[in-house]
Design brief:
The chain is an alpha+beta fold and 116 residues long. It has one domain: Arc Repressor Mutant, subunit A (Orthogonal Bundle). Helices cover 42% and strands 13% of the residues. The chain has a three-stranded antiparallel sheet with strand order 1-3-2, covered by helices on one side. Helix 1 packs antiparallel against helix 4 and helix 2 crosses helix 4. The longest helix is centred in the first third of the chain and has 14 residues. The protein is elongated and about 80 Å long. The mean pLDDT is 86.
């Protein structure tokens, strides 16, 4: 007959001490999740890449449909998500909208996981 050892609870208080780093707050988690959701789509990643690589630092929505082979309403939907996540800035000029990267947004996004 094999007997299993009886495990005793740990008595060392230091093993369960709080790390001292506050947990992520609900609002901050919501904002970070918004950015991660925005980046979770390949078309939105491509849009960011296209806008970032645009010669003038901005791209017209009229120039973003062909590279993605998507219709204008779909591209506009993806762009709105990127704007809502704080990654792109939208400027309306006449009938067209122009998009540019929010200054520092890429760098802030790169640090999101590190700040958890």
């Amino acid at each position: 007959m094999n007997s299993l050892p009886i495990l005793e609870p740990a008595t060392d208080e230091s093993c369960c001490a709080p790390a001292g780093v506050p947990a992520l707050g609900a609002e901050e988690a919501k904002q970070k999740a918004l950015v991660f959701k925005a980046l979770a789509d390949p078309n939105r990643l491509r849009l960011l890449s296209i806008v970032k690589g645009a010669g003038a630092g901005e791209a017209c929505v009229c120039d973003l449909t062909e590279p993605l082979d998507l219709g204008q309403p779909t591209v506009s939907h993806h762009l709105k998500i990127l704007v809502d996540a704080g990654l792109l800035h939208r400027e309306k000029r006449g009938t067209w909208a122009y998009y540019s990267l929010v200054p520092g947004a890429i760098e802030q996004t790169a640090g999101l996981l590190a700040s958890l």
